[in-house]
Amino acid sequence: MTALPSSGREWHLVARPDGWPDPEDFALREVPVEAPTAGRILVRNLYFSVDPYMRGRMNDVKSYVPPFQLDAPMDGGAVGEVIASEAEGFAVGDHVLHGLGWREYASLPAKHAKKVDGSLAPLSAYLGVLGMPGLTAYAGLLDVASFKPGDAVFVSGAAGAVGSEVGQIARLKGASRVIGSAGSDEKVKLLVDEYGFDAAFNYKNGPVAEQLKEAAPDGIDVYFDNVGGDHLEAALGRLNQFGRVALCGAIAQYNDKGAPTGPRNLALAIGKRLRLQGFIVGDHSDVQPQFVDEVSGWVRSGELKYNETFVESIDNGVEGFLGLLRGENTGKMIIDLSR
Questions:
Q1: What is the CATH number of the domain that holds 42?
Q2: pLDDT < 50 regions, the chain
Q3: Which residue intervals define the domain Enoyl reductase (ER) in the entry (predicted)?
């Protein structure tokens, strides 16, 4: 039997960021690792996820998910290998998906872990295309935005883990036109050449409203919003009557110190009879089996493509998160502890 580690490292939040997070707001600390007790497993994390929603959890405000506590480990999605088990149904060597990321070793009740199969897809895919971001894309487009074949769809933050999947699902489900925005010319090229978007633009190259009008001359029926701000305002201007908006995120304002600027043209929603709906992925667990079945099939056939950006070593966990906020990732941003 292999000896268990005596200690492991984990990232703690030590100060609440004021605006953009600073590396000094975090600390990498070494803590003891103990053998699991009855009903629990010990997991060596191989990959953990960093996601935009985590920025909101760094503020001490009430939200749909509790804020990170100071001087305590942060958490989030992770995939790892069971290295010790005192739980029925979990054996050493099993790979599991769980919620205790931001650390090298996770000790948790087995009921909070889900076994994943690395032969069906790379383990890291369960944090992205087949994980929470993928389900967000699937449920947000199909359930929340009530997508139907023939809809013209606009996705902001379209080169990210969620946005890139939204656009491809729309295309595979029969969209008449799929448009995306991203933050670099390279990402715009990726959206069109690899992901099959009909049009895309770099929001840094000019006013979003003008670029969207050019990309969607006949308007749009669905807007999947990951950004907020000027993107939401532009989308309201281009939405056709009875258009729908899935409000997933507002990354443009996550680090604002002042009051965020709302869309100045919200009154358009009245005459156009628009529906704007916010959503949380946890409310859509009922479609999880359908999502995994359909999307995994598209991934295996090559009809749906995905990218991952890996940042190696737990030492670089915070830098990977900050890079995500700066838009340095293409597809899912993942911290790789497997090496």
A1: 3.90.180.10
A2: none
A3: 21-335
